[in-house]
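Materials and Methods. Structural model of Dienelactone hydrolase domain-containing protein. The 239-residue sequence of Dienelactone hydrolase domain-containing protein from Phaseolus vulgaris was retrieved and submitted for structure prediction as follows.
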Amino acid sequence: MGIDCLSNPPILNASTGVGYVTNIAGVNSYVTGSPLAILAIVLISDVYGFKPPLLRKIADKVANHGYFVVVPDFFHGEPYNKENASRPFDPWLKDHDPAKGIETAKPIIEALKRKGASAVGVAGFCWGARTVTKLGKAKLVQASVLLHPSYITVDDIRGVEVPIAILGAEHDSLSPPKLLKQFKQVLDAKPEIDSYVKIFANVSHGWTVRYDPNDPKAVKAAGKAHKIMINWFDKHLKK
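The predicted structure was written out as tokens:
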């Protein structure tokens, strides 16, 4: 596991955002946007979970475009906490295997569809990307976005069956540009699946969700990625 994933840890105990926390399919989730919206977006966090204020701000931003947005607590109250010396990262990750995130995601997506969602988009940051690709393989969602993904292989991308956008960083040991270019090659060979791959210059892993809000350049770079994500959902869900 690269050090990239653990750099710039956010505040974990903040209760911010214009939405609220509720239970969906047995999972505490931050929700925002009109409950009457017929299009839903699920945001799957990095290892720091669903509480960081910047993640909730992103959810609020997406909701402003007419979506009901859900940010589930995939770690069931146990996000990674860098300050907890008694719980090193490797054993934590073993208990929170990114390959198993789909087991939490499926019932949430089913619940959203039962509530009237006609289409569901999903975006994953870092840890969350593995779940997004699995959902895309199983055609359980209608559009997907990966932001600085971790634990993703070329085979994972080869199996995706829904529109996918991949936003990567120039400086990223977990998904280096070389790997992202391989993802693009695989997707270009599947023209029936709409795809988009972009490598952002001068940014590092985590730049879309763990940026310094007081740094104008960092805010601008993150904002560009958020805009691409929202445009991707607009293109594939608002038909």
